[in-house]
Amino acid sequence: MGRASSKEDVGALFRSLRSAYAATTLNLKIIDLYVGFAIFTALIQVVYMVMVGSFPFNSFLSGVLSCVGTAVLAVCLRIQVNKENKEFKDLPPERAFADFVLCNLVLHLVMINFLG
Amino acid sequence: MAAVANMPVSDLLKSFKLKTKQQELLIRVSILCLVYILAFITRLFSVLRYESMIHEFDPYFNYRTTLYLTQNGFYDFWNWFDYESWYPLGRIVGGTLYPGLMVTAALIYRILHFLRFAVHIREVCVLTAPFFASNTTLVAYFFGKEIWDTGAGLVAAILIAVCPGYISRSVAGSYDNEGVAIFALLFTFYLFVKAVNTGSLAWSLASAFGYFYMVSAWGGYVFIINLIPLYVLVLLITGRYSMRLYVAYNCMYVLGMLLAMQIRFVGFQHVQSGEHMAAMGVFFLMQVFYFLDWVKHMLSDTKLFQAFLRITVTCAVAVGTIALGLGMLSGYISPWTGRFYSLLDPTYAKDHIPIIASVSEHQPTAWSSFMFDFHILLFLFPAGLYFCFKRLSDATIFIVMYGLTSMYFAGVMVRLILVATPAVCLISAIAVSATVKNLTVLLRSKNKGVQTGSTKGSSSSKASSKALLDQSQPFQKNGAIALLFGAFYLLSKYATHCTWVTSEAYSSPSIVLAARGAHGSRVIFDDYREAYFWLRQNTPPDAKVMSWWDYGYQITAMGNRTVIVDNNTWNNTHIATVGRAMSSYEDEAIEIMRSLDVDYVLVVFGGVTGYSSDDINKFLWMVRIGGGVFPVIKEPDYLVNGEYRVDKGAAPKMLNCLMYKLCYYRFGEMLTEYGKPPGYDRARGVEIGNKDIKLEHLEEAFTTSNWIVRIYKVKPPNNRW
């Protein structure tokens, strides 16, 4: 009883998730794709670090943190641009994008300084 | 004629009459300007009484590094290896200091020189702390405005301008990290609260920069990186989870962490040290939380969501605990260092790390210190907490948490009263502002109620209810006036107390001592600087001076000579070696001194003047620290029945150790006080035990005019016969 229903649950879960996600707008999906790409890059870097060791540590950290940072900033942008969020309905999407670009600029400048 | 002359005047006045909003703005701006000036000038007592000089011990190192920075430029400063301290080890200065203060002072110096004000860097250093104290009052105003309203902001600015808890570390001349760090702390907190309130990425970026400035300024940044995650956790638990919080915390954490790692002294601690793990844990927790919230929003079926929730939470918790456990067990994540661990367990330092326990600023706080430093704020603080709880919002929850945690730490260590001061001032400001506002509303509503009740009988029931209220308590207006007078009386007493405390307790330079002479005239003891300048002018440039670590920074800054140990106290064994040398017999001590290439020994002695912070009073700490590394030094050898004595009944090891001999050499013939025998030690109040001191391997080089600093030269080894 448990195993069969849990399998059905998982299947139903995935199906409903997929159908709900297909309903999101295009610009949000682009942002999601960007976030996924950034996380994927971070994972590749971590796997590489596990293989060859972590020296120099500052380079590894700056690489991983730049990926994680830009992913997080993209998620923040997604939150601010998403029309369903009541808290941000007064914020023009251009302003949100400008903030996103500024923060990314600072992130990458600091990262390049830290790269060594 | 007179009537005609009066009319244009009243017309003139009418043309100047401002609208209410403009009047209010004028009042606010003028109050802030006055508070700004007040915060600056109340810190100038020591400059007026003595001269514009750097106080205490640590500021001399900061001054020396700032001097180096302005003379040699930032690149040389960042990569500076100092061979003039911790001989023969040297010190990597670039990587072991917090550069914020020095860079700030050098920047102000450069700006002033650009504007053609040719000031000396020392003046800039002396006045940096008061300048930043004034800026802190401005930040306090904006922070108060954010939390409560403009009235609370103004009161907060005034309270923090004169609060003794802050003044103690930011007087003119106290050129220390805390002077800038408290400004950076409050600024970072203000920017973060603003970011949480608005949910804007720009404000979060600003708070990340504020955090970067704080990390560059002071080691106490650990407080920020632990308080903010704790605050986020509290908000999550109390259900105030909002998108703004996500944006604010994540942007600040990632950018702040990356910026903070640019400071070499901090290095990789943000990912490796146990003290910073709370922030990372909350970061991952937020990702999980937000992800779950998003999935819940997308799934319409709650049963499916429950299943999903269960799977995800168990996975996340398992992964998190495994990672943390692996990290701590393998030693990759270092446990809390001694300095911060002793905040959680106050008895830790006393048993394990005598150097931390010996610093007088690290002792637990007495109630009198709280009263001394806070005065009426001490009972306005609980009142303010009550008001905050009445109007809970994201911002007031933050200030309540800041207040409570900082008060706990202030109770553990005297030095941390400084960190609690902004929180106490802000919360007390809320209490004062809310009370005064309620009282004045009572005063004004009474009049209005009477007027509206009489003229507009048909207006809302509000007027009639007010009239009823007024009728039920006929003495309300008088009570309000009396309470207002009481509040103003208390605040004026606070101002008087703060000024008195600043003048009496916190304005002494510590390097120049003052006393009252026989006829009430002021006597100045400038012995320290006399000795350092003697060193500078009468010893070879590569001479090495051995002294206790308290004076190391001053000797390198003013005497310009190499020292063996200084206030950085980064190498306990080196300090213990010096402590062992000071507490051994002369024959053993000379071996140690020759192995360290010591040329001169400097001791501080207060027996002639009654100065009680001298080396004989610090001697037991030298024994303890030396004995902690070299078991040959045992503390009971120097005590008699557990008592520390220097007179005839003292322990023989005490009477013949190097420190005793150096301090009391030739003191046996000295008459210090009328009616007492020669060799009467005024600081201990006894006649010394060993008056006939002969030095075999050292000779006296210099003793200052009041015998406070004594310098001895190490004699080269004898010829063969």
Descriptive report:
The complex is a heterodimer of chains A (116) and B (721). With 116 residues, chain A is mainly alpha-helical. In chain A, α2 runs antiparallel to α3. Helix content of chain A is 83%, strand content 0%. In chain B, β10 and β11 form a beta hairpin. In chain B, α6 packs antiparallel against α7 and α14 runs antiparallel to α15. Chain B is built from 31 helices and eleven strands. The radius of gyration of chain B is 31 Å and the shape is globular. Chains A and B meet through α1, α3 and α4 of A and α10, α12, α14 and α15 of B. Chain A: Pathway: Protein modification; protein glycosylation. Chain A: It holds the Pfam family DAD. Chain A: It is found in: Endoplasmic reticulum membrane.
Features:
heterodimer; A: 116 residues; mainly alpha; 4 helices; B: 721 residues; five-stranded mixed beta sheet; two-stranded antiparallel sheet; 11 strands; 63% helix; 5% strand
| Strand-residue proportion of chain B | 5-15%
Q: List the uncertain runs of chain B.
A: 449-468
Q: Count interface residues per chain for the largest interface.
A: A-B, 39 and 33 residues
Helix content of chain B: 55-70%
Mean pLDDT of chain A: 86
Radius of gyration of chain B: 31 Å
Subunit structure (chain A): Component of the oligosaccharyltransferase (OST) complex.
Keywords (chain A): Apoptosis, Endoplasmic reticulum, Membrane, Transmembrane, Transmembrane helix
Membrane topology (chain A): Multi-pass membrane protein
Pathway (chain A): Protein modification; protein glycosylation
